[in-house]
Design brief:
Layout (H helix, E strand, L loop, with lengths): L1 H13 L3 H19 L3 H11 L5 H24 L5 H7 E3 L1 H12 L4 E5 L5 H7 L8 E6 L5 H12 L4 E4 L3 H7 L5 E6 L10 E5 L2 E5 L2 H9 L3 E10 L2 E10 L9 H16 L16
Parallel strand pairs: 1-9, 2-5, 2-8, 3-4, 3-5
Antiparallel strand pairs: 6-7, 8-9
Helix pairs in contact: 1-4, 2-4, 3-4
Length: 287
């Protein structure tokens, strides 16, 4: 019942022009930050621990910037339900270097592993990959939702422009099955793994467990590991840059790849901290 009630509303939001969408986002900001205080305690605690050099007033300013971005993120992500390739091309810009990286590996018939964080707008960035359809097939790892109707909706949202998905627990099977294709498999690697078996490091001044699946699968298949940086140039406009972390994972020492992509994400967060997902309880586990 909730699905059928929500569906027309979600599609109505998705067809709104971007200027109208951002007026709605400004209203949501007031609601989330001042009225509901959605996860504000978690956000403030995360920011305070991650930036001990900032005073309380600076943390408060950063918190408000984050909530502005967070509301944009929600509505921009809904926009991918109906956004066209022409529209997404205006909002997601791949650098010349990024296109060159894809072309290099595609010309060499080499599949790659893409690793990124909950930074910028990963949903729009995924949709934006459709403008590079002459290169790799993009597969995105995802957690299926328990509600089958909403799971199908999210699946449609992420695949309607040509991308494909691997369920998290079927990633290895899918990657082995598709070894004859030229693929780019995208991992969002800043989720909170179970502390047992995770790689522990220091991230934003805190002991942090890191999901090792990216490293394990890249090493098993020996696919080059490429970090995808999604930064916000201005409201609604995102730039995508790529950086090759290693071309030969089998030559890397244990945990080296996990450390490399964690450090690279940390660098992006320090450059534009308000566009990382601070509502996420990233540090709920202790070493």
């Amino acid at each position: 019942m909730a699905y059928y009630l929500a569906l027309p509303f979600l599609y109505f939001i998705s067809i709104l022009p971007f200027p109208v969408l951002y007026l709605l986002s400004d209203f949501l900001y007031v609601l989330f930050y001042y009225v509901i205080g959605y996860r504000k305690k978690v956000v403030l605690e995360n920011l305070t621990r991650s930036f001990p050099e900032k005073n309380p007033e600076e943390i408060k300013v950063l918190c408000k910037k984050f909530y502005h971005y967070f509301c944009d993120l929600i509505l921009e992500s809904l926009k991918t339900l109906t956004i066209s390739r022409a529209q997404v091309k205006k909002h997601v810009i791949f650098s010349e270097h990024a296109v060159g990286v894809f072309k290099k590996y595609y010309d060499n018939k080499q599949s790659i592993v893409l690793v990124m964080g909950h930074m910028g707008n990963w949903e729009l960035a995924g949709a934006g990959f459709s403008q590079l359809s002459s290169f790799h097939d993009l597969y995105i790892l995802y957690h299926p939702l328990s509600n089958k109707k909403f799971d199908n909706l999210v699946y449609h949202m992420r695949t309607r422009l040509g991308n494909k998905l691997y369920a998290m627990n079927e990633a290895l099977r899918g990657m082995l099955r598709d070894r004859d294709k030229i693929t780019a498999t995208a991992f969002i690697a800043d989720q909170t793994p179970s502390p047992e078996g995770a790689y522990w490091t220091t991230f934003l001044h805190q002991d942090t467990p890191v999901f090792k699946g990216t490293e394990k699968l890249a090493t098993k298949l020996n696919y080059p590991v490429v970090y995808a940086s999604v930064m916000r140039k201005k409201r609604g406009i995102y730039s995508v840059e790529l950086e090759v972390l290693t071309e030969n994972p089998k030559a890397c020492s244990e945990n080296e790849i996990s450390e490399l992509h964690t450090r690279r994400l940390e660098k992006d967060i320090r450059l534009q901290p308000e566009i990382w997902l601070w509502t996420h309880r990233r540090w709920k586990h202790q070493r």
